[in-house]
Amino acid sequence: MKKWNVASVRAAKGVQKLGCCTAYDACFARLADAAGVPILLVGDSMGNNVLGYATTLPVTIEETLSATAAVARGAKDALVVADLPFGSYQCGDDRAVANAVRCLQAGADAVKLEGGEAFAPLIKRLTTAGIPVLAHVGMMPQSVNAYGGFRKQGKTSEAAAQVMRDARAVEAAGAFAVTLECIPSALAAEITAALKIVTIGVGAGPSCDAQWLVMHDLLGLNETPPPFAKKYAALAETVRGAFAAYVADVAAGRFPA
Ligand code: KIV
Prior knowledge:
Layout: H1 6-11, E1 18-22, H2 26-34, E2 39-42, H3 46-49, H4 61-74, E3 79-83, H5 93-106, E4 110-114, H6 120-128, E5 133-138, H7 144-147, H8 157-172, E6 177-181, H9 185-194, E7 198-202, E8 210-213, H10 215-218, H11 235-252
Parallel strand pairs: 1-2, 1-8, 2-3, 3-4, 4-5, 5-6, 6-7, 7-8
Helix pairs in contact: 2-4, 4-5, 8-9
The chain binds 3-methyl-2-oxobutanoic acid (KIV).
């Protein structure tokens, strides 16, 4: 299989729907990559799924860099995208570019950032500097405090028009793809039809060009997944069972044999 890059992701629009997911370490990145997942996102959802935080907000650039390097070591063909964590790009454009550069130096092929029209100048600066950007509009989890909770976005006609403006702005600024999170399915379909770049939906219905699933939801490791997620395995039960069997074997003298 050939290594995915931003050009092949762009070329997939209208040709091939892409099932993409998150990864946070080399072991799972290797497995997902071998299974043909085209884009691996080192998501800041690592905060909830791996690091034990309640939200994505405490994730640091150092944690992101370490996980990105691990995923890049595990992935061979997948495009590896580092999710810029909260505070790493809302801190002035010079520091944002420096942090994005560190992500590419750690092994990422591109960075993702949350923000629409307001972040278009930064996206332009990053892409001009040779740093591919995957944008993220609609519900932006790093803005949870501004929303007053995790809420579906784009529900009124004004809000929908703003999400459409955001999507058009990030495309015009040079993003090679855009995440549409938790917006009405009809709005996601409209944006997907209006843009030339790939839309990657998460809780945004079936019309997007591609989908994200958080790895822990996909594998059934998260026991409280969001309602839109689909579980393709039940690893929480399997893993708990394996640990319990091991403890029981040692206690009963069955291991080591
Ligand atoms: O961090 C994350 O998991 C995300 C999702 C959109 C996949 O940003």
